[in-house]
Amino acid sequence: MGARRPQASASERPVTPAGCIMVGAMLMVAAVGCGSPAPERTAGTGQPTGGTAGMTACGTTRTAANVPVHIEIAHGRVSCATALTVERDYAKAILAGEAPGTGGGGPVRVRGWTCQGFATPVVLKTGQASKCVQSGNEILAVLPAPA
């Protein structure tokens, strides 16, 4: 028998599977030096230096796990104010325990948008933590490249 690990208090444990995804995202930041380098981003805009076609950088907010993410409009016509509000409200919904499922990280409806966190392997590969979609519009929350 192995040694028992200390249990985290209820307030220290992630409440939803999305919280687990964000923990994986934090690990990605620490492990990024072990694989392919993350794309470099332009200071101030968060845009990849190569200029990803169709992406609009809107600013930075934080996930439910308090991890900073760049908010980008991947598809469609969405104002940055709307994109940032939807992402902030998504984080609040996760903190409130509104993400359905046990282990599946089910989608959450926010202001008419459907938001969902990506599985840890996707976060590690792309840096994308979550997306919100509505009528062909797509907002991404992307981890910043390590400094």
Give your account of this protein's structure.
It is a single chain. The chain contains 3 helices and 6 strands, in the order αββαββαββ. With 147 residues, the protein is of the alpha+beta class. The protein has a domain at 54-147. A 6-stranded antiparallel beta sheet has the order 1-2-6-5-4-3. Strand 1 (56-62) and strand 2 (68-75) form a beta hairpin. Helix 1 runs parallel beside helix 3 (120-126). The termini are far apart. 29% of the residues are buried.
Distance between the termini: 42 Å
What's the tally of helices?
Answer: 3
- Binned, the helix content reads 25-40%
Query: What is the CA-based Rg, rounded?
Result: 16 Å
Q: Can you tell me the overall shape?
A: globular
What is the N-to-C order of secondary-structure elements (H for helix, E for strand)?
Answer: HEEHEEHEE
Number of strands: 6
- pLDDT averaged residue by residue: 72
- Low-confidence blocks of residues: 2-51
The main β sheet shows up as:
6 strands, antiparallel
How much β-strand is present in the residues?
Answer: 15-25%
Structural class: alpha+beta
Query: Within the largest sheet, what's the order of strands?
Result: 1-2-6-5-4-3
